[in-house]
Amino acid sequence: MAAIRKLNQKLDGFRLFAGIECDILRDGSLDFDDDVLSELDFVVASIHSVFNLSEADMTRRIIRAIGNPFVTILAHPTGRLLLKREPYVVDLPAVLDAAAETGTWIELNAAPKRLDLDWRWWSRAKEKGVKCVINPDAHRTERLQDLWFGVGIARKGWLTKDDVMNCLPLEKIESELKRKREG
After folding, report:
1. Are 137 and 114 in contact (CB under 8 A)?
2. 126 vs 120: CA distance, rounded Å
3. Contact 126/165 with Cβ under 8 angstroms?
4. Tens digits of per-residue pLDDT, 29-80?
5. How far apart are the C-alpha atoms of 85 and 32, rounded to whole Å?
């Protein structure tokens, strides 16, 4: 974080954001303490284990996590892996309501193996004022092009560039990040 802050002081017309993806634990807490999360520009929260909870428990888990004031984005909100793993059971309308209430953005994971959140949910999210972040989930540079799959899913879900946070100008992204933190 210190290195990023130092670079941002040197760079003109360019901004690096300090962020992290953290795990949502079984009880909805996060695997980093708030003192660490508070130093970051953004925090992506996601579930990577314990997929077999009841719908009520999984929903509570996610809603507790996005209730953390430092969580900016909920990633791959159903946990699905196409042709490999079914989505975990979760009350998505309740999660979208909580995201709207907390100002949490929802990821549209553009990796072809995920495409999560599914296009059928985006009109409901948009109706509630929930913003989207398209993420290629690239673990290597060749996968950055997967962003285009996400753009296609966003369009299919009737989203416009105004609904997608990473389509906004830098100043707007900075103000939205600040607004999210100040709740």
Report:
1. yes
2. 11
3. no
4. 999 999 999 999 999 999 999 999 999 999 999 999 999 999 999 999 999 9
5. 27
Spell out a b/e string for 78-104, using b for 16 or more CB atoms within 10 Å of the CB, else e: bbbeeeeeebbbbbbeebbebbbebbb
Domain 2-182 has CATH 3.40.50.300: no
Neighbours of 163 (CB within 10 A): 18
Query: pTM of the prediction?
Result: 0.95
Q: Where exactly are the structural domains of the chain? A: 2-182
Closest residue by Cα to residue 136 from 120, 125, 152: 152
Q: Residues 6 or more apart from 17 whose CB is under 8 A from it?
A: 4, 41, 42, 177
HSE-CB of 83 using CA atoms within 13 angstroms? 2
Residue indicated by tokens 């004031």: 69
Structure tokens at 100: 């709207």
pLDDT at 13: 80
Q: Please report the beta strands in 47-154, taking only residues with DSSP state E, as ranges in sequence order.
A: 73-74, 105-109, 132-135
Q: Is 122 exposed, middle or buried (0-12, 13-18, 19+ CB in 10 A)?
A: buried
